[in-house]
Amino acid sequence: MTVTLPPKGRDLRLDLIRGVANWQIFINHIPNNKLNWITTEYYGFSDAADLFIFISGFTASFVYARIMLDKPVPRNPRDRRVLAQVVEHLMILITSPTAHAPVFAAVNCCKA
Q1: pTM of the entire structure?
Q2: 1, part of any domain
Q3: Is residue 101 part of a domain?
Q4: Region of residue 44 (left: phi > 0; alpha: psi -120 to 50; beta: else)
Q5: pLDDT tens digits for 12-50?
Q6: What is the DSSP letter of 39?
Q7: 62 shares a domain with 83
Q8: What is the dihedral angle through the alpha carbons of 62, 64, 66, 69, rounded to the nearest 10 degrees?
Q9: Same domain membership, residue 31 and residue 14
């Protein structure tokens, strides 16, 4: 398998996503704004903070991709612990919506 890493230096894709996130924050903080319908806050519980979380993961993938290509198997206890935490996080993420579905249904049915 051949992996192409991005060149070292500034990545304009990150700047674009950061700009969109800042633009959304600006738009969402203006009261009675007609542009709110094009931001992610209008469509659910997400807002521009989710984009900043995406940016941090995107950046971490650039940083750690070079390290993981050199030694892909977790070899020391710290790496194994990090892998265990990632698996635990994914299990919570997968099971949490199903565990909380009755609560969300009860809250939504009682709104006037």
Answers
A1: 0.54
A2: no
A3: yes
A4: left
A5: 888 888 898 899 888 888 888 888 888 877 777 677 888
A6: S
A7: no
A8: -130
A9: yes
